[in-house]
Amino acid sequence: MTTTTPQYLTGNAAALNEFIDRFDVFLFDCDGVLWSGDHTFPGTVETLELLRSRGKQVVFVTNNSTKSRADYKKKLDGLNIPSNVEEIFSSSYSASVYIARILKLPENKRKVFVLGETGIEQELRNENVPFIGGTDPALRRDLTPEDYKLMAKGDPSLIDPEVGVVLVGLDFHINYLKLSLAFQYIRRGAVFLATNIDSTLPNQGALFPGAGSMSAPLIMMLGQEPIALGKPSQAMMDAIEGKFQFDRNRACMVGDRINTDIRFGVEGKLGGTLAVLTGVSTKDDILNGPVRPVAYVDKLSDFLGAK
Amino acid sequence: MTTTTPQYLTGNAAALNEFIDRFDVFLFDCDGVLWSGDHTFPGTVETLELLRSRGKQVVFVTNNSTKSRADYKKKLDGLNIPSNVEEIFSSSYSASVYIARILKLPENKRKVFVLGETGIEQELRNENVPFIGGTDPALRRDLTPEDYKLMAKGDPSLIDPEVGVVLVGLDFHINYLKLSLAFQYIRRGAVFLATNIDSTLPNQGALFPGAGSMSAPLIMMLGQEPIALGKPSQAMMDAIEGKFQFDRNRACMVGDRINTDIRFGVEGKLGGTLAVLTGVSTKDDILNGPVRPVAYVDKLSDFLGAK
């Protein structure tokens, strides 16, 4: 952890140019950096253009697990932010890559039980990972007395013997049956994965249950934490590096949250971390917290001062 | 915490008689002590008869929040265990008494938002506590985009301004909407209560999500623990004492779980605690754990040896 004072770049053209020149890759957290809610910050598009025009690789890194990369591209389109799918790295994609390429599952244990929405399902499909659960409408029902018996004895009509992974993301259709099934699978040896562990999800200026809140009952029941694949987990950094093959010394993580974004970059030993003040963390958090970025700006578009 | 060696009473008629004579009141945990699942242990009925014939007050203490005392009486009837409603103390009843008689709520904040089943609703009704949520079928639906806006601004069409308590018990119909509402209420100042914090619920020899698992997402989101009203919380002991007006020195807690039942009695400074080996805790837990009962028997019906 660095405890030096972060450099303030806003309004300092020379320092901004020097900072940009130090990196080949910029990893962007999105909400709170590029936009807030449905509102794109002024200058976001121009700043991304500036970086691209100087040959920088731009990557959009999001813990949002409900969307696939294709969905997320549509969201960026709707916000008028030019992008392509290959620049997007979501926790649903990160989790799918982890399962498909890193987890060594036995031949007969390759199925994933999903607690989550369609974004996860799409990314699993893209990686040819078989799955059950997720948005299956058959699971949107109450438990019956018969279910308890079938689950207790691991009856294959309810407990698929090929499930070797439980992947928990944000599930707007969480229910008692799905939680019960996820628990039985993990107790029977399935790997416990989470797309991300953000406890809350901001929306309309209020907070709502996040993906971490879906894992919370299972963590309490099992006395076991999941392997998390979103920021700040380094499993996500490894997956990003695996895809873009960059030099970590010449990569910079940009974000508004010290505890997730900046920590993600610092623990990933990236050459740079940059905080913006348009989101969650305050100037005091940035200057005096236990985790500090290399530099900070008031807002991302302050980079336009480098022109 | 006592660290003396628990006395083994099985087969020792004199010790059994002496033990019984020391108490006026016996508080019984039920599952694992009187029965297991749907199966009443042999000798349960005769043991309760023996105690009653010697003038002992018997109290059935259960963390089960889905049942009211009236429901629980029916369960005891079904197991052929004679009882009356006044002998039953459930966590749903404990919570209702706590809200009605102990919590000092402002006049305009007396409503309870319930995450739970009909047992809680019945006990709140018995204590004349107004409530919303619970089994209301209107809450068994998805969140709409409009809901996010209404919740964020605290619109009274969705956020009842009179709610001053969120009470979380076991809810077989837990969903994203209910969790979101519970969170908004607590964030707006409602008291966070839980009937009990057992993470799991045994059924058919397997484990399923318990009441504590319903609180888990809220605990993670809020960074705050609820006040729990079931064993081993002393709020429950206070409520039992308030009702039965006994001398704690002359009361004995009987149970199969060291961490809940025996701890409940020890922390409540009861004169006696008695463990049985027909449930969760083992002889090793009893003899060598950090919390130890005054005495133990292999099974409850060993008390018939006192005849």
From TrEMBL, chains A, B:
Textual note on the cofactor: Divalent metal ions. Mg(2+) is the most effective.
Name of a matching Pfam family: Hydrolase_like
Cofactor requirement: Mg(2+)
Name the UniProt record assigns to this protein: 4-nitrophenylphosphatase
Keyword 4Fe-4S among UniProt keywords: no
GO biological process, one term: carbohydrate metabolic process
UniProt cross-references to SUPFAM superfamilies, sorted A to Z: HAD-like (SSF56784)
Keyword Hydrolase: yes
Organism: Talaromyces atroroseus
Binding residue positions for substrate: 231
Molecular function GO labels: alkaline phosphatase activity; metal ion binding; phosphoglycolate phosphatase activity; phosphoprotein phosphatase activity
CC terms in the record's Gene Ontology section: cytoplasm
Source domain of life: Eukaryota
Catalysed reactions listed for this entry: 4-nitrophenyl phosphate + H2O = 4-nitrophenol + phosphate + H(+)
Active site: residue positions: 29, 31
Keywords for this protein: Hydrolase, Magnesium, Metal-binding
Annotated residues for binding of Mg(2+): 29, 31, 256
EC numbers: 3.1.3.41
